[in-house]
Design brief:
Shape: globular
Strand content: 25-35%
Largest sheet: 7 strands, mixed
Radius of gyration: 22 Å
Strand order of the largest sheet: 6-5-4-3-2-1-18
Distance between the termini: 11 Å
Length: 304
C-alpha cells in the first residue's frame, strides 16, 4: 500500500510552551508532502523530522491566528536561501494575500522562485487541490475568525491483477491495463473468463481530515462520514467547557463525539491548551466516548 501518513510538527495552541510547538503538520500522500498550518518553529521541526524541504510544494493555512501562520514568512525565506526554484503554492483566506506580499517585499526581495497565492473561501466546502492521486477540500469550521479544515481524499485505485490468472490463461501483458479497467478475457476457444476472476479488489481509498480551531459542530460529522483518520482540536477538557465556548474551541469529549458520529476509523487529539501539563486527562475523556483515540505529539507519525 502506498504511503499516506501524518507527521506532527506542532500540536500546541496559542501559547508556545517547552512541551509543544504551535500547530503545524505534514501530510504525506504517496510521497507528495503537504504542509498544513505553519506556526512558529515549523522549519526547525521540519529539520528534526528529516522530511525534505524541497518536497513541500503546497502550504495550507487554516486561519489567520498567529499560532497557525507566524512561521510562514520565515519558511518562505529559508526556501529562497536553499536555492529553491520550484513554485510554492499557498492556500489561505484572502486577507493573507496583501500581508504576505508586504512581508515578501520587505524580507524576500531576491527570492528566486515564485510564490503563488490561492485565496480560499472558508464558508463552503470546495475542492482546492486536485491531482491524479488525491483531492483536498475545505471544511467550514466555526471559530472567531474565518477558518476551515482540510479534507485529504485519496482517489480510488484500479484493482490488482492476478498474475496466476495471467499465466493460467496465457494473457499477454499488453492487456493488463484493459483487464484492470474491467475487461473480461476471451480464450482462444471462445470461453469468457469474467473480470472478477482476473483481479483482486483494490485497497479502499483512504481519507484524512484536519479540523483545528472550532467550536463543537455536531453537523461536522455529516461532512466527515466514514473518514479514515480525523485530527480534531481538543484545546480543553470538560473542566474548561466554558472557555471552549467563549474562545470558540472544542473539548476532548466534543472531538470524540464528532469522531463517533462520523464513523471515523481513528481520532487524533491536538491543539492542547498550555494549562494542561499532562494531556492524559483529555485522552481519557475522549476514549470514554470514542476508544480509538490517540494524542498528537511532536515528531509523532500516524499512518492513515
Amino acid at each position: 500500500m502506498m504511503p499516506f501518513s501524518v507527521h506532527i510538527l506542532g500540536c500546541g495552541s496559542a501559547l508556545p510552551t517547552l512541551r509543544h510547538y504551535p500547530s503545524s503538520q505534514v501530510v504525506d500522500v504517496r510521497g507528495k508532502l503537504f504542509l498544513v498550518d505553519c506556526g512558529e518553529g515549523c522549519q526547525m521541526q521540519l529539520r528534526r523530522s528529516r522530511l525534505g524541504f524541497s518536497k513541500i510544494n503546497n502550504v495550507f493555512i487554516s486561519h489567520l491566528h498567529g499560532d497557525h501562520c507566524f512561521g510562514l514568512i520565515g519558511l518562505i525565506s529559508t526556501f529562497g536561501m536553499l536555492g529553491r526554484t520550484a513554485p510554492l503554492h499557498i492556500y489561505a483566506t484572502p486577507e493573507l494575500g496583501p500581508s504576505l506580499r508586504s512581508q515578501m517585499e520587505m524580507f524576500c526581495a531576491m527570492l528566486g522562485y515564485e510564490v503563488i497565492f490561492h485565496p480560499i473561501d472558508t464558508t463552503k466546502r470546495s475542492v482546492v487541490y486536485d491531482d491524479r492521486s488525491l483531492t483536498i477540500e475545505t471544511i467550514p469550521l466555526n471559530h472567531r475568525v474565518p477558518c476551515c479544515g482540510f479534507l485529504f481524499k485519496e482517489k480510488p485505485t484500479l484493482p490488482h491483477i492476478r498474475r496466476d490468472m495471467l499465466d493460467c490463461y496465457g494473457i499477454p501483458l499488453c492487456q493488463v491495463n484493459n483487464i484492470k479497467n474491467g475487461m473480461d478475457w476471451v480464450t482462444a476457444d471462445g470461453a469468457v473468463i469474467p473480470n472478477s476472476r482476473l483481479v483482486r479488489p483494490a485497497e479502499p481509498a483512504r481519507s484524512y481530515a484536519y479540523c483545528s480551531d472550532t467550536r463543537y459542530m455536531p453537523e461536522l460529522a455529516d461532512e466527515l462520514r466514514g473518514i479514515t483518520t480525523l485530527y480534531h482540536e481538543s484545546t480543553y477538557g470538560s473542566d474548561n467547557a466554558r472557555s471552549a465556548v467563549k474562545y470558540f474551541h472544542s473539548t476532548a469529549s466534543e472531538a470524540a463525539m464528532v469522531a463517533r458520529d462520523a464513523g471515523a476509523g481513528k481520532l487524533i487529539l491536538g491543539h492542547f491548551s498550555a494549562r494542561y501539563d499532562d494531556e492524559k486527562v483529555l485522552l481519557d475523556e475522549a476514549r470514554a466516548i470514542f476508544p480509538d483515540t490517540v494524542l498528537a505529539n511532536e515528531m509523532a507519525v500516524f499512518d492513515v
